[in-house]
Amino acid sequence: MLLDPKNYLRDRIRTIPDWPQPGVQFRDITPLLQNPKTLRVLVEQFVFRYMDQNVDLIAGIDARGFIVGAILAHELNVGFIPIRKKGKLPHTTIAEEYALEYGSAAVEMHADACKPGDRVVLIDDLIATGGTMMAGKKLLERLGAVVIEGAAIVDLPALGGSKLLRDSGLSLFTLVDYPED
Predict the structure, then answer these.
(1) Average pLDDT score over the chain
(2) pLDDT tens-digit map of 96-108
(3) For a designed S-S bond to 98, which of 14, 81, 131, 161 qualifies (C-beta 3.0 to 4.6 A apart)?
(4) What is the pLDDT confidence band of residue 72, given thresholds at 50, 70 and 90?
(5) Any residues with CB less than 8 A from the CB of 7 and at least 6 apart, and which?
(6) What is the DSSP string of 31-92?
């Protein structure tokens, strides 16, 4: 029997009700990372997607985007850019602020992380409101990179992030959607 990768992965994502607050269904990708077969299936979905797209760099968003992003960069034989929470990078950085439900946050990357014309895939574990990925996209574009696609393991379309990102012109690739969240 052939494996359906999306259902295989979806069946292994753990749902934790009421975390971090009541009413939230937290989609935990940790089980995907713990099992070698599941991790391989996960990574290969992204490798197959990008292996013929002339990608120069993978940019991963802090923190779970680092895990899959770094493995994907290795598999594609390209460089990796960490996009981190403000104050975590040691060299000269550029920052982008984004809105949260109550307040704001910021992400940063090194000012020399990429150069004009670099073709970059921006990856995170999950798209909820889209603020973090949008901030990452803006940082990369500020340095002249071409963000060819945003990628995530999980999309929560009911929270509006994927629509926001697509409306900004960013193509998206996600493996598992939870439309009811």
Answers:
(1) 95
(2) 999 876 789 999 9
(3) 131
(4) very high
(5) none
(6) HHHHSHHHHHHHHHHHHHHHTTS---EEEEETTHHHHHHHHHHHHHT-EEEEEEETT--SS-
- The size of the chain, in residues, is 181
Write the pLDDT tens digit of every residue in 57-70: 999 999 999 999 99
pLDDT score recorded for residue 181:
63
CA–CA–CA angle 37, 152, 78 (5° rounding) = 80
In SS3 terms, 127-157 reads as ECCCHHHHHHHHHHHHCCCEEEEEEEEEECH
Tokens representing residue 102 in the block: 């109550």
Nearest to 123 by CA among 39, 43, 53, 65: 65
Sign of CA dihedral 33, 35, 39, 41: negative
Tokens of 34: 């713990």
